[in-house]
Amino acid sequence: MKRIYLDNAASTPLTPEVVLAMQEALATYAGNPSSIHLEGRSARARIEESRKRLAKLLNASIGEIFFTSGGTEANNTAIKCAVRDLGVRRIISTAIEHHAVTHSIESMHREHGVEVVELALDSKGIINLNELEQLLSNSTTKTLVSIMHANNEIGNINPIDKIAQLCEQYQALLHTDAVQTVGHLPIDLQTFKVHFLSASAHKFHGPKGIGILFVRQGNTIRPLIDGGGQERNLRGGTESIHNIIGMAVAMESAIEEYTLRRTHIEYLKAYFITKLQELNPDIYINGDHENNLYTVLSVSFPPNPRAELLLLQLDISGISASGGSACTSGAEAVSHVLSGIRHPEDRKTIRFSFSHLNTIEEIDHVIRHLAPWFSIVIA
Ligand code: PLP
User: Fold this and answer.
1) pLDDT, tens digit (0-9, with 9 covering 90-100), for 148-192
2) Is residue 175 lining ligand 1, measured as CB closer than 6 Å?
3) Which of 24, 121, 156, 211 could potentially form a cystine with 70 if both were Cys, beta carbons 3.0 to 4.6 Å apart?
């Protein structure tokens, strides 16, 4: 049987239209987009056309869209440049942000003495807006709030609109890591009042190694990567034209097919949850069930002496899922997100994350594999 890929929060496969557009770009654009000859000018035109399409899809202006190497660089740039260029001396965030955010914040604390405040989280990973308001109202220190739109391990969607209202009221800057939501939820940057937003193409069936940093007009930051004056002086380096084109095509398809994809994935997820709970009522879902991203399902399994082998066993059986977020070492480390929500250490969590390419048959197959491990029905 074909492998079953349920790790779409880590990365998604390219869709055929993205592959075609990228192949065409690779074969066509030999010139450096900064060169003034025809080859350079035509490469430049395609980049700017893609930027225009992406800006339109996000309802931003062209001058607010900067291409980066992905979500990690976008997060680093937003946080580090807000400190260096916009006078930020305090950062309010949470313990369950992606490491590209938490480690950037830690380095701003270490290297620049920036005060760091972590909002408390309840056992579902939900923040308390009253605490945020109190922190913002009690201090005049220039503050950046950096809170992700949706969490990559447990899928919680944070109330960015309400957070943005508070930031506006108390004149704080707001950055949101929207790597898990851009291409999966409609985002209108005219009404979504963040100052900075990070996105990454490989999470919505685009290529790896390309992303977007949205910087709202009026927040002038200087480059983190020095070089030529590319990206209107914000990021040096010859643009990755095939990746930029691939990202624009991927986002266009994601938004065009949004309802269709979402309806299908929601159906798969609800079916999976029902089947899991039929297996064993002590299987539960981590995170905030009211505000959860439809693509992510974090499943907490009851204690089982062999649980450490479960992911490996699934992999051997042709099923790809993940213990938490994708881990660079390849080893399973304790997830800072699960620690952040105080997930019991004797239970095993597996994150299953879906795309529109998954099927009900695949879910049935996974359930059949999990049954011998967790079913309480004695055969
Ligand atoms: N932020 C979140 C929430 C993510 O899930 C990821 C990817 O795992 C990143 C940032 C990093 O993005 P990239 O892989 O494009 O650097």
Assistant:
1) 999 999 999 999 999 999 999 999 999 999 999 999 999 999 999
2) no
3) 211
